[in-house]
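Chapter summary example.
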Amino acid sequence: AATSGATERAEGSDGQRQLLREAEQTIMMEHNLLRTVIDILPDHVFVRDRASRHLINNRAQLDILRAGTLEETIGKTDYDFYPPELAREFTDDNERVMASGETFADIEKLIPGPDGEPNWWSTTKVPLRDSDGTVIGLVGIGRNVTDRRQAMQKITEQAAMLDQAHEAILL
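The structure predicted for these 171 residues follows.
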């Protein structure tokens, strides 16, 4: 009877190891899937911890940071990648989201590009919470909306010119 109990424990142990291996494979597959999805997005996806340290950056975000790999950014802050005044603005925005626990959606700001060119960005930042609901960081997504803003400016200018032409015709 003692031998059969040991055999059952060994078989049970083998079964548990197999289940654990399958669970680990599933987690790895889901991780790879999520990583692939965020890396193919043209938008900039990022995750910061409570101290605004970089945890995750997708490929588009890594490119603007001029980082070759995620590992080059993990644990660093925006002060490691941006001029101090811009880093302070980003960090202050992050802190407002995390302190308030509220989403900041579609906030448009003029942010200089890596070579100083003017770029308009629409950014959404959402508090990241643990299982207890405590804010532990934030998740953000940013989209370069410069082309849209420029198109809207042209439409506005053309509409003003048409209004002026219409008024001139009426006179």
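To summarize the output: The two ends are 110 Å apart (CA to CA).
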